Structure formats: C-alpha cells, structure tokens
Amino acid sequence: MKNQYYKAASGLYINYFLLGMVNIILASNMSSLTKQWNTDSTGISYLIAAIGIGRLLTYGLSGVLSDKFGRKPLIIISSVLMGVFLLGIPFSSTYEKAFVFALLAGISNSAMDAGTYPALTEMFPKSAGSASVMVKAFGSLGATILPFIILFLSNNHLFYGFAFLTPAAIYFINMFVMLSASFPKSKSDTASSEGDYRRSGFITEPEFWGEGLALIIIGFTSTALFTVSQIWLPSYGYEVAGMSHAGSIKLLSYYSVGSLISVLLLSILLNKWVKPVTVILLYPMITLLTVIIILKVHSPIVLIITSFFLGASTAGIFQLSIAIMTELFWRKKGTVTGIVATASSLASVVLPIATGLIAKGGDISHIFFFDCFIAILGILAAAFVNYRYRKLTRYEMVNNHG
C-alpha cells in the first residue's frame, strides 16, 4: 500500500468504528425509544428493519455508481446521511419521522459498503481478506464501547441522545478529513478473453450462478446470524436466563469483544496460514454449536461465555464473502459488492420482522431455534464455495505455464 492511501484507509476504518455503534444503537436504547414513541420492542425491531429496507433498495445502485464514478463520492455521501440519522433519531417526535431517518441510515450504509470494500481491495491488493475483516474489527470495537456509554449516561441521569450525537459529530469531522484523502483509481475492466481469467489466477471462469449464488446466500446468512444476536441476546438474557437489565445489555459487549478478538486474529492469520474460504465454513459451524448450548443451558455465566463465542464466530463472514466475491468476479468489484450486500440488507429487513413476530408469540427461545436453521443454510453454502474455489485453483501452476 502506498503512503498516500494511509489517510483514506484510516478514515474508512473510523467510519466503520462508528457504524459498529449504529448497528446496535437502536436495540441498546430500546427502553428510552419505546417511551419516546409510545411503542414496544417489536416496534423498535421494525425500525431496525427499516435500516435494512434502505440498504435493500439502494445497494444495487450504489454498487454500479461505485464502479462508474469511483469510491470516494459514495463514502462522503454516506457520512453525511449517517450523521443526519444520528441527529434525527433522538429528536424525532413521532415514530413515523424516526422511520424516515432509519431509511436514510440504510441508504448511507449501502453507499459506505459499495465504496469502502472495493477501495480497500484496491489499496491492499495483496491482503484484501485481511483489509476487509479489519472493517469488522473496527465495527466490533465501536459496538463494544457503546453499551458502556449508554450505561454511563443512564447512571448519571444524562440525556440518552448523547449516545447518538457524539458519533454524529465524529462522522461529520471525518467526512471533512476524507475530502482531502487520496484514493486509488478504480478500473472497470469488461474484457472477457481467456487470458483475463488466467491472469486472475483461476483455471476457468468462475460461475456466477454457482459459487456466486452461494456467496450471495452467505451474505444473507452471515448478516442474519449476527442480526439475531444483536437484537435478541439482551432480551434472552433478561427473560430466559434471569439476568438484570444492565447485565443483559452487557451481553452485547461480550459479544462484541468476541468479534473484535476474532477479526484481529483473522487479520493476522489470513495473510499466511488461513484461506477466507476455510473461515466462512468453519465459523458458522461454531455458531450452530454455540446456539445449541444457549438453548440447552439457561445460565447467566454460560450465556456470557456463549455470547463471546457467538461474537467470535459471526465476525468477518460478510466481509470475507465480499472479498471472495470480488476476487472471483474482479472485473466489477463495486457491482458484485452491491449484490452480496443486497442479500445482507434483505436479511436486515427480514430477520427483525420475522423474529419480532416470533417474539409476539411469547417464546423467545423459538428465535434461536430459527437461528440454528440459518446457520445450517450458511454451512451448506460455504461447503459448496469451498469445493468450487479449490477446483478453480487446483491447477493454477499448470495453468500459468500452459
């Protein structure tokens, strides 16, 4: 990576440090927000789904715009929109206004992803997987810190909205820093000769409706798994494991610590010892086992430990699926990023609504049974990607000399 990109890369990671807070900020302030808008926990889950709707409606367009106009404009726009969301929520007088701001957050998230992931692979061409999972590392760090900020505000009887206003201010400051940062020139290479895919390191052209579709499914399941955990772990700890309100909120911090440690290890291991395709298969297996333990053992201590492992095993899968997708279909990095991210946003819409309806049925444990099914789907898709990836690269040396 050239020196002129350090500033840009730092700004990108700061954005995702703040996004880590945004991802759990509504669920973590559920009690304050339900009072403000006279709604219930299901209403807040629908608001979280609105963020997913905003992403779903705009990811495809964001990916195309990223390839056409470059990464930087989308990243700047995303900072502005996310700042507006964070300013708007604590001052929204009605649920309907808050819903509009949530949609803006989703649009911001889609622009941020479509600009950031391709930019990082262009800044770090030899370590794209590590660069991508570091996005998750910074997001996890932000999610780890936010619950402590909320508890500090609560214990000192301060306005809960400061948890929104502080990251909003940092987003705007970072935006001005990014305006002067240098970005690599993105290239949209539409050539399709045999030499192109050989130059990319594959013996044959990757199949979009094969491994591409499987990676899209992983984009959905990876987001679904951590969405369930981030929304419902505190409620499960409070209602099923008998934890205090404050203790149940801290489960998100244990979850985020697991995520942070996991992606930091991945950022080191992916460079030399572990392939991204291995991680996307191993991690959902760990998630499945962890959720089964949560359902079997209703103990606060066990829930604390399993929250850590849930965070560790759901960390970085979405980012790695994008890294693999852009490696396989490298001619249109922004476009394929948008497609995988669209699947992710679909999960962000469907899972809060589906789990909210399950919660209305009265048994929150059923949500985590549903989580097991999602993990199994992710395992099957990852197994297929592993098979195809190894087949595409098995005779690389023969191909290079052939």
Low-confidence stretches: 188-195, 395-402
Instruction: Label the structural class.
Output: mainly alpha
Order of helices and strands: HHHHHHHHHHHHHHHH
Number of helices: 16
Radius of gyration: 20 Å
> Based on CA inertia axes, which overall geometry fits?
globular
Q: Which range best describes the helical content: under 10%, 10-25%, 25-40%, 40-55%, 55-70% or over 70%?
A: over 70%
Q: State the end-to-end CA separation.
A: 31 Å
What's the count of strands? 0
Strand content: under 5%
Sheet bearing the most strands, described? none
Residue-averaged pLDDT, rounded?
Answer: 86
Using brief descriptors, characterize the structure shown.
16 helices, 402 residues, mainly alpha
Descriptive notes:
- The chain has 402 residues and is an all-alpha fold.
- Helices cover 82% and strands 0% of the residues.
- The protein has 16 helices and no strands.
- The two termini are 31 Å apart.
